[in-house]
Amino acid sequence: MNTRVSHHPILPVILERWSTRAFDRTAPVDRKELAALFEAARWAPSAFNMQPWRFVFALRGDAGWDAMRDLLIPFNQGWAGAAGALICICSEVDVATKTPGERQPSYSHSFDAGAAWALLALQASSIGLSTHAMTGFDVERATSVLQLPSNMRPEAIIAVGREGARADLPDGLRERDVPSDRHPLETFVYQHSFGTAAQLGAASTE
Fold it and tell me: What pTM was estimated for this model as a whole?
């Protein structure tokens, strides 16, 4: 059960989204649902509107499923294999300059891809899907198996599906599969300089 409580008023979907490891193996994810997730990601903000995010996906039962799943470390394979889809989110590490044919490193490619992932995850939660992003995968093999261009960085692999029963999780994961809490604002928000307490007013969810 999700017992999260915000300290200030926020959109309900933000609290509802959490990273379960329990997926329903009997419930597929269809292409229309995936399209909605990618559409949400498409509208993420990015530096200079460069939109550096790229996605490679496989549906459970597709020809590419085993190859995508096998990129995960064994621990993640143990539960993510029950998801309906796996998505590798990548970012383009360089950008075109004004000089034709010339490119330069992008400072914000990972930051921008993270914004796209956040919108994808919120969209998923809003339509009854669960997501769990993992950085526990073989990056070098992902580049090869997914045939990524040399300027593409695989950032994470995202499991997508409908939430399943915690009882179906491997031993050691059942108790851990609950919505996690977050640090209070005063531990990471500062005013004027790092370490200076921010004046934001009393906590309130009204």
Answer: 0.94
Residue pair 40/184 in contact (Cβ under 8 Å)? The answer is no
Compute CA 177 distance to the chain's CA centroid, rounded to the nearest angstrom: 17
Residue 199 lies inside a defined structural domain of this protein: no
Joined together, the tokens standing for residue 178 give 């609950």
Sign, Cα dihedral of 139, 140, 141, 142: positive
111 touches 35 (CB < 8 A):
no
Per the CB < 8 A criterion, the answer to whether 93 and 139 are in contact is no
The string over 166-189, giving b where at least 16 C-beta atoms fall within 10 Å of a residue's C-beta and e elsewhere, is eeebeeeeeeebeeeeeeeeeeee
Q: Which domain holds residue 163?
A: 19-178
**For 123-159, what is each residue's pLDDT tens digit?**
999 999 999 999 999 999 999 999 999 999 999 999 9
Three-state DSSP at 98 gives coil
Please give the pLDDT value at position 206: 61
In a domain, 106, yes or no: yes
Q: Examine residue 200 and state whether it is found in any structural domain, yes or no.
A: no
pLDDT tens, residue by residue, 53-91: 999 999 999 999 999 999 999 999 999 999 999 999 999
CB 126 within 8 A of CB 142: no
Among 33, 27, 3, 34, CA closest to 16: 3
